[in-house]
Amino acid sequence: MKLTRYFALLALLALLATLPAAGAEAWPMFRGGPALLGVTSSQLPDDLQLLWTFKTGGPVKSSAAIVNGRVFIGSGDTNLYALDLATGKQVWIFPTGGPVESSPLVLNGRVYVGSTDAFLYSVDAGTGKQIWKYETGDKILGGPNWVKIGETNRIIVGSYDYKLHCVDAVTGRAVWTYESGNYINGSPAVAGGKTVFGGCDALLHVISLADGQQVKEVEAGAYVAGSLALAEDRAYFGHFENEFQCVDLAAGKKIWTFRDRAFPYFSSPAVLPDRVIFGGRDKQLHCVNRADGQPLWSFATRGKVDSSPAVCAGKAVVGSDDGRLYVVSLGEGKELWSYEIGRPLDSSPAIADGRIVIGCDDGNVYCFGAKPK
């Protein structure tokens, strides 16, 4: 009996060893996951404090990835940085050939990021050493995404060369490319064996991840500069002719359209089971009913909201061009907390381990959380 219990204990310890450490939450890519939903189960404290700042040499429009206690983020100074989440100290720095607005993707111990030098880079997450680089025909501004096909991981990224590129995650070799009719500015969303992106050609492109062949093409009505979110075969996105839309991808038609004032939408949405939240250049954060697009509330800032909201445990977090970071109640859209940085926040918040990390046009990376005891 004692021997049986001993082996049972060994089995339990082996299982526990495969689980993430307590508090080791992650936000491994732009919008938190491949469908770009912008939602996390992480909890934020009510009494948020500025914990640290890290100064780079250029504006930080890149949005952070947070994995294993490290922050990965690009800067307009051409570098990709790895920072310690607890202290904000630099762990390593990786130089590219141009400003880095792309948001990093962290996968299996590697960091993938695009640069305006037209390259997609794979970097060792522990050391910052380059593993490979893949050349596209023009700058990369959107963050890469990923998918597993069989036993192989593939990286998906759009470029201003009008193409969506799929490369092998390990080798960096091209698997397929898909050509659209204009620039691809945002990140492609991935779900259900498909990748979907809106382009500056005013179309939604639905592509098979297996072979890069077009599944469907849907009229968006205007060019789509931001990234869309995918949920239950529906795409949620805004465009530059002042509309936010929900499109049924299977049917290839609009389900609903939200239109307020004559201002474009660049912010990517956060999608929950009952509502959708997105920023606008009308200086507002909007919340609409997911089923029919009817407005639930709006929250006014003093500047355009190109930052994409992150949602966690009843709260929405977003930056504004008015230089403030806001936390808003999910139920009523009431301000719960704000912090004045003073310069525009085009970067989108990343949330993990009870902390918010966001970049700013002043060249700093900011981290907020509970005051250390």
Name the descriptors.
373 residues, mainly beta, Methylamine Dehydrogenase, Chain H, 5-stranded mixed sheet, 4-stranded antiparallel sheet, 45% strand, globular
Notes on the protein architecture:
The protein is mainly beta. The chain is 4% helix and 45% strand. It has a five-stranded mixed β-sheet, with no helix packed on it. A hairpin with a 3-residue loop joins strand 23 (270-271) and strand 24 (275-279). The radius of gyration is 20 Å and the shape is globular.
What's the mean pLDDT score?
93
Please indicate the percent range of residues in DSSP E strands (runs of 2 or more): 35-45%
Q: Major beta sheet, specifics?
A: 5 strands, mixed
Q: Radius of gyration from the CA trace?
A: 20 Å
Number of strands: 33
In the CATH hierarchy, what is the superfamily?
A: YVTN repeat-like/Quinoprotein amine dehydrogenase
The low-confidence parts are 1-23
* Tertiary shape: globular
Q: How are the strands ordered across the major sheet?
A: 1-27-28-29-30
Count of DSSP H/I helices: 1
The fold-level CATH name is: Methylamine Dehydrogenase, Chain H
Note the gap between the termini. Answer: 45 Å
Helix content: under 10%
